[in-house]
Amino acid sequence: MGKTKKNSATSGKGKTVAVNRRARYDYQIEDTLEAGMMLVGTEVKSLRSGKASILEAYATEENGEFFLINANIPIYEQAANRFNHEPKRHRKLLVHKKELAKMIGMCRRDGFTIVPLSLYFNDRGIAKINLGFARGKKAVDKRNTEKERDWKRQQSRILRDKG
């Protein structure tokens, strides 16, 4: 018997739970990094049902460790109240020491922030988050991005109609 392919939104990744599409519009992404998260059981159950939001989330350093702040993982309704988690609690990010040093260095640089780009389950079923080292765009940069996107869309229409 052959292996079955899992449901994947992007190559090499498992099921995508949440995507922060606004991050690529508001920030210029310099580099990306994959990190694990420390989650409790009800958070994993809630993620598996596809309920999460990382639109307002960011990562920051606290006492030499990195935490994901403001990520909303809603409570799991089927669990009893005493087993549920707080929806917007700080979640510790799990990275290697070398990556942690890189994150601290980038975070302390002027104008850099760490924003989550996507939250997904990898092929082994472990929850991972894709982080981006980002620098904020100004309004002019955002307008230029929109102009380029519109021009590429028009080019593809013209080529499609002629071909």
From TrEMBL:
Q: Where in the cell is it found?
A: Cytoplasm
By its UniProt entry, which Gene3D superfamilies does this protein fall under?
2.40.280.10
Q: Does the keyword Mitochondrion apply?
A: no
Q: Which UniProt keywords apply?
A: Cytoplasm, RNA-binding
Which residue ranges are recorded for the region named Disordered? 142-163
Does the UniProt entry include the keyword RNA-binding?
Answer: yes
Report the InterPro entries cross-referenced here. Answer: SmpB, SsrA-bd_prot, SsrA-bd_prot_CS
Instruction: Give the matching CDD domains.
Output: SmpB (cd09294)
According to its UniProt entry, what is the function of this protein? Required for rescue of stalled ribosomes mediated by trans-translation. Binds to transfer-messenger RNA (tmRNA), required for stable association of tmRNA with ribosomes. tmRNA and SmpB together mimic tRNA shape, replacing the anticodon stem-loop with SmpB. tmRNA is encoded by the ssrA gene; the 2 termini fold to resemble tRNA(Ala) and it encodes a 'tag peptide', a short internal open reading frame. During trans-translation Ala-aminoacylated tmRNA acts like a tRNA, entering the A-site of stalled ribosomes, displacing the stalled mRNA.
Q: Which HAMAP family match?
A: SmpB (MF_00023)
Query: Would you identify the family this protein belongs to, as annotated?
Result: Belongs to the SmpB family.
Name the record gives this protein: SsrA-binding protein
**Organism of provenance:** Kiloniella antarctica
- The organism's lineage? Bacteria, Pseudomonadati, Pseudomonadota, Alphaproteobacteria, Rhodospirillales
Gene giving rise to this polypeptide: smpB
